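Lesson 9: reading folded outputs for more than one chain in a single document. The general rule is that every protein is listed as its sequence immediately followed by its structure tokens, and records are never interleaved. Here is the first one.
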Amino acid sequence: MKQIFITLLTLISLTACGETKEPVAVNNMQNNKSIVIYFSHAGENYSVGNVKEGNTKLVADVICEQVGADRFEIECTKDYNMGYSALCDLAKQEQQNGELPEFKGAIDNIADYGTVYIGGPVWWGTYPQVMFTFFKKYDLNGKHIVPFTTHEGSGLGNCVDDLKKAYPNATFGTSFAIYGHEVRTDAGKQKIIKWLGNK
């Protein structure tokens, strides 16, 4: 009788273990997708002039092409169609005031993505304020975040540190910074591809 009782306990234990493993496997399968989330500014940009496509968008294009990632562009509802100097002043004012401008659209299936590439230009040392609106709206903790920036001398600025503050429970891949004027060249594209191979 004692032996039968022990056998029953063992079977129940094994069954319970089997039940807890299956959802984990399903979650891993659901979270193996990648998405590129970025803000990019077309129009007048430092060093490249008046462009139809922003520098960061061109980096996002290469990432999507190389890794098969989905994309979401953070498009601000505010009008940023102005000269470079005026935009610099506006960006500084937004940051000093802690503004969180709204953006268009939404990601309904953010849970499907395990890897999230996050990119934007460096405005006054970090990402544009509208990106922080996104960070407050979407919880990316538990995901693998890969930051990138376009710039003309700021490098990564404080972007990575600010992302880590926003998502303390995420893991982070190798970050990447590239000069805006480089992204339109073959050499620039090769730099992006090389980074993607080492991220």
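And here is the second record, again sequence then tokens.
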Amino acid sequence: MCKMKITILGSGTSTGVPEIGCRCEVCTSDDRRDRRLRTSILVETEAGRILIDAGPDFRQQIEPLPFRKIDGVLITHEHYDHVGGIDDLRPFCRFGEIPVFAEKEMADKLRTRLPYCFGVNKYPGVPNIVLQEIEPGKSFKAGGMEIVPIRVMHGKLPILGFRIGRMAFLTDVLTISEEAYKDLQGLDVLIINALRIKAHPTHQSLEEALAKAERIGARRTWFIHMSHHIGLHREVEKILPEDIRLAHDGEVICV
């Protein structure tokens, strides 16, 4: 029985896969594992239900799942592929107010981008969401879960990863500090980005992701935030270590 159920809502990078206009072997693949919506996960325990990131595909990702309360939304960073679906939280506000957890700078940007959600005089029908400011290294609770925000770097942009129990979620990472590595010890499940085969200025390559996964040493690791340049799912999985695999949309991970 799962103590924690993780659903991969999306495993793709900012353009998604297939990429519009591309006719490469990945974008034209008939393997459903090669179709990747923008990266997001849903974490569920007996105590609650937490969403990490709400990208522009959120409505499509969540619609097939049971319609139940979302107890909180964790935001890793400001880029559109991670926040573009926040307005689609509206139906879930029938269950009550939804806290959205983000760093102060990120929260300020959301207030600017979505002023109708956070203004003093809200008009009827806007999402009933409230921003809760968080800081790296300072744990907080949401949905009955204790959550630790972890500072990582997306190129030169400071962003957040999250540890929940013995699971950690890191997306858009390029570098991890020594302090952050300490916070990532003793994991059963690591979910971390691997954009493509070649190096990239702001995201990990497959080789870099493998090196970090080995150092962190989780019992099992799944790669996310993949572009079509990563290659065919079935071919990449052949070269991965036994305890590491590519995530795919709709996959359920049991912790």
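What the second record shows: The chain has a mean pLDDT of 96.
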